[in-house]
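Lecture notes, unit on protein representations.

Consider one protein chain, 447 amino acids long.
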Amino acid sequence: MPANNMDELVALCKRRGFIFQSAEIYGGLQGIYDYGPLGVELKNNLKNAWWKSMVYENDNIEGLDASILTNSMVLDYSGHTETFSDPMVDCKSCGLRFREDQVPEYCKKEDLTEPRQFNLMFKTNVGPIDDGSSYAYLRPETAQQIFTNFKNIVDSTSCSLPFGIAQIGKAFRNEITPRNFIFRVREFEQMELEYFVAPGEDEDAHNIWVQKRLNWWEKQGVPIKSIQLHEVPIEELAHYSKKTVDLMYKFPHGLEELEGIANRTDFDLGSHSKNQNELNIHAKVKLNKDSNSKLSIKNREGGMVVPFVIEPSAGVERGMLAVLNEAFTIESLAENKTRIVLKLKPHLAPIKAAIIPLKKNDENLVNLAKKIKSKLQQLGYGRIILENTGNIGKSYRKQDEIGTPLCITVDFKTLENNSVTVRDRDSMQQERINIKDIESLFMEKIK
């Protein structure tokens, strides 16, 4: 059962150390968030799951970690300088600013100013002298550095069509009205794949990647039945897109885009290539007199071709929000009590297991619990913690609320017969097992 509203998720995230407002002690910075001890673990686990599914499970996909600071010419030829802006209006009555197509009903038409274009890119000075002559941008997306590194990767590996380049990294957009918690922010992370195919094979590849992405989200705990496919109308397509399918998910604030899968044609590689008239580029591109490379590759027939690109692009923060929303559960217990439990997939859980000594000041119990914690930590599945509070009930409730799949209690029977109590998060069932069996049970539960 997903959360009833965003406030429930926001409260949980702050209370338990998932997400904090950045610079909160100074009143915060709108549209910027910090990720606490549990948030950074969940975020990393989601990124690791994406990276494994893309790079490790596909022999034809390579990884990249490119720079954030972006040469202005890259964004000139990509079309961002001209198109990466939104028409905004100000309401004279309430004093707020809105995107022209997102003005709320309470603002009267006669109170709105004429639309003005606001650039969404962050510009920064490069070098010691701030005279405006040398500048770069904080990248508004991770894709362009993939395209500008296309030749480097082709030349340094044995890539042949079809193949992909994957990247996870920060992007920055000067959103005029950041909103809905971490859904729309100014600093965020993207998980992007650029999958290069021969012209003519792009439509089949696009359909395949839409299904692959649906299947992946299902494995992360966002069911396919909770996602609606939305084909973006032709008149709303981005300038580079032949076709885009958005995966729409019902967030606490409404149905919004979780991920987009775009057919970018050969626009990007064509735009960044020199001698474009020699390359049989299908897309309409700006004449490039600055590039020093032809971004093409041999096809199966041995000729040179500018590939088409299929781009599955997902925001890490939106993914986290969807995963948290689906996992958030309020369950009724006996005596009119309830518990909050995050039923996260075990591979995403910030804490994989909590080792709990029954009595916190008992040296024998605590030392044995530390040994068990160290053994499980060395398996490399993620973070294991020692929950040394002495209150077993409160410890269970806390671990349920942060999504810990297993709690292992070390008590006085453990000292007698080497057995511990293992409690399952979802069923709350407990079983007694021998210490020597902990590792195998743990690996079975956390795979």
